[in-house]
Each structure stands twice: as structure tokens, then as C-alpha cells.
Amino acid sequence: MSLAGSVRATFSPDIGIDLGTANTVVYSHDEGVLISEPSVVAYRTSDDAVVAIGQAAKELDGRAPGRIRVVHPLRGGTISDFRGAHALVKTVVDRALASRTRIAPRVIACVPGCATDIECKAVEEAIRAAGPRITTFVPQAVAAAVGAGLDIMGTTPRMVIDIGGGTTEIAVLVLGGVVAMHSIKIGGDTFDEAIVARLRREYFGIGPLTAERLKIERGYAGRAPGREPYSVSGTNMAALRPGKRFVDETLVGEAMADGIDKIARAAWSILEATPPDLAGELLEAGIVLTGGGALIPGFAGEIGARTNVPTTVADDPLGCVARGAGEILASPGLLERLRPHADRLTRWYQSLRIGMRESYSR
After folding, report:
1. What's the whole-model pTM score?
2. How far is it, in rounded angstroms, from Cα 290 to Cα 206?
């Protein structure tokens, strides 16, 4: 990096933001992951003031008193609470750059492939709360592939499946372009909700944090690993009182099976849409899983068995999207090849005029 570039980076840093449904991660090419906070905001109900953001707000989820309202500003990869999203982005970026004397940063942010232009506009507004000098957007799947270390500029096709909190992004890339891409609103939150619903059918109520813990401790795809039952606390709905019970891993696996099946079917559909020559080369190149869902035991094996393509998990799968975004921003050649060339505001305005919901990823 030139001296001028170093000076500019010191006072106007380049950062990649993964504004995810479950976590918001900020990454710098020079310093790595600067911060990772849960995408959760807590309001005081009396005056609607924000009282906690990130990990502090997540710890209130499911256990806050009536005067506190806990929200997840993003659902399915898109913004559902604009004010909360603005507060979340501004706070996380401020915390990430707190030790710097800075001017407006240059920001690259990721959006799901299923987001409409209007939903992308909402993300753009939220990112603006951080006061960026320049903001660029890339599809999450592309950032995940770069963050996983895949050579997407070469002639060998690379396939990535990023399983986030709200969406799963699937893409096949070659020569710096997208051959096929698909996004479905199935992710970690889907698994949590399915576990809650499955236990409720047995008249036992649990909260979102307990469901997430069960997913992490006893979740799996494919064949059950054979772990001991896991003890959880909640509400015995039959006796109408607090209670404890042991949850067998097969119950958790059965609850998650439908979501896992939909992800596998989506991966298969992408392989069907890929030209035969490139699909054949994926037998050698394989599929790489990123995102928190990649850590579910047996997931890579299940995808490999269902698609007949060898599947592996990326190193540090949780940080791949933010890391990829930061690396794209740090590489002018890569940024020029991957960023959208259409004027986003023009496209957004046109979508309003003609009443269409145009996909950003296409």
C-alpha cells in the first residue's frame, strides 16, 4: 500500500459489513474481524428509547420485563425494523472504529440474493447511519466465496452455500462472474423455530435462546451422532408450571430435517441450472459451506450425499461473508469486477414506477 493509501486508510478506513439476521460483523483487511455482535436491539416501551444493542440486548431476549421490548431488526436477511437497524449499524461501526481518529469510512455491505431493490434500499439507508464516505454492495454468496478463499476469478467453477441466520445463499461462480445463484429464506432461525414448535407439540415451552442452544448442542443432519440427551428448562404446559426435561438429539434432528431438506433441494436446483461441463468440473472442485449453519454436524456430508459433489466446511465459516466483503473492497480489480454496475437509485426509482419487485442479484 502506498504512503498516501496508508494515511487515507488510517483516517478513513475501509470496512466490510455483514449485516446478518443473527449477527453483524465488521471486518477490516488490515486488522481482521473488528467486532461481531448479535443483531438484536432492546427498546424501553414507555418512550421507545433504545436501551441495549448487540450482546446486551440478546441476553434480554425471552426474559425481559414488560417495560423492555426486544426486537430483531432483520428477518429473512432483510430489514423488518428500520429504526432498530439504523441504531444497530451505527453502534456496531462506532464500536469497531472507537480507537481510531477517523473521518467517514469507505464501506462495502452484503445483501441476500433474494432481496428486492426496495429491500436493498432499506439496507442502504441503514448503512448510511454509520456515515460512510462511499458504500458499495455485493451479494452475500459472492462475498462468502471470496471470504472462504475460493479463487472465483479462475476458469474452474466454484460453488458456495452460505447458511446464515435468515437466509441460505447458493452460487456457482467462474471467471469473476455468477453462473447460477439462488437464495431461500431458510437459515438458523428456521431451525430454532422448528425446535420450539416440535417441543410445544409435546406440551413443553422453551424460549429462543434455549432453542438456539439445543440446535448448537444436539442439532445434526443425516445420521444421529449418538450423543446423550440434553437437559433444558422451560414451561411444562400440561402441568402449567416451570419444569425441566431431557431432549433427545433425534427430536432436535427431526425438527431440523425439513429445513435441511429444503437447503439440499435448493443446492440441487443450482446444479441443474449449471451448464453440464461446469457441473462436471464441480465433482473435482467440490462445494464449500460457510455461515453458522455450516457448523451443524453432518451438514456437509448430507449435502455431499444429496448432490453427489464432495462438500467441505470453510475455515472460520462464521466470518466468511464479512471477510470476503473486506477483501473485495481492498482489491480494486476484484471490486470493479464484482460490484453491480447499474445505478441503484435509478433502479429503485424505476421499480416504484413500474410496480415491480426486481431482484438485485440478477
Report:
1. 0.85
2. 28
